[in-house]
Amino acid sequence: MIQKRTNTEDKIYFLGSTIFVALIMTCSLLWNIYTTDSNTFQLVKSIGQSFFKEIETTRFWNASHGGVYIPISEKTQPTPYLKVPKAFTLFFKNRSV
To answer: Is 0.70 surpassed by the pTM of this model?
Structure first.
């Protein structure tokens, strides 16, 4: 003969399965937080390295071509913080650069 479960046994099974599912979900949440943090750090590190390499390459190119000279105009004035006399006096084809 098959015995029926009592109300107390149903509550125990329900509580046990609820705790099991909650444990699985908590583990999943913690794993997702860990992998997201790890992947975010790797992405930021990679972007930072790429940006630094781009700046380094640009500076190398500028230095290998003798620097960058921009004509002085109303919009592009020499920096007032550079205390070198006549630092911006460079003549190229009768034009001050």
So the answer is: no
